[in-house]
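Final report, closing paragraph on structural work. Over the funding period we assembled a curated collection of sequence-structure pairs, and we close with a single example.
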Amino acid sequence: MASSPDLSSTGNTPENPESGSPSEAPSGTTAPAAGRRGRVRARRAAVMAVPATLVAAGLAVLTAQGALGVQFSISGMPFTVAASHLDGTGFEQFGGLDNMADGSPNAGDTGGQVLIVTSAIKKATLTKLCQSVDLGGTNLLITAGGGDTKVSASDLTTDSTEMSGDASFNHIEIGNDASTLTEANAKGPIGVFSQQADSVHIDNLRQTNYATTAGVFKLPGLKLRFSDSGC
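Its predicted structure, as stored:
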């Protein structure tokens, strides 16, 4: 005679686990992947939360939700730019994020994003320009504008993480919405803190940049070489 099924065990089989029992995580799930996602979320949250502040010599470090820097994937390798003097007409500045290519070996724990300040100048001249990239063991060094003719650029933008110098501005406006800027040919997203001025002069300029763009960039006396030291 066949025995009756044990009704008390119904619902407790492997195919139908007991109600309320916690399910186990798949064996392929790893903590590092979750950690990386957490760091990316934290970085994006920082862009939303960090207020705009003014640093030495009136140079602005600005961050804001959703602001974008250059529209290409950066290498993730910072480079130094220095000049004894910069003069510009049509100046704008606002914060944002630059993005590396997917899978970039330079991403580290950044999630492939760098928090930057975008500075845009409609027309600029620079005296004794120096640019260097640390390649590990040597530096790629570029110099120009050391003679009578200065370096000149139109529609110049730089995406920086650090900037220093002795600056003066004419007819500056601070606190603009970046989508309404009019001094240079650049605009940020709506709701982003920014500033603009009719003109800017900076002595002893020094920047740590991740990207530079220009409509026209003239480099008289250009020299490119490898060097033991940077700018």
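The CA atoms of residues 169 and 183 lie 13 Å apart. The first strand starts at residue 53 and ends at 54. We thank the funder for supporting this effort.
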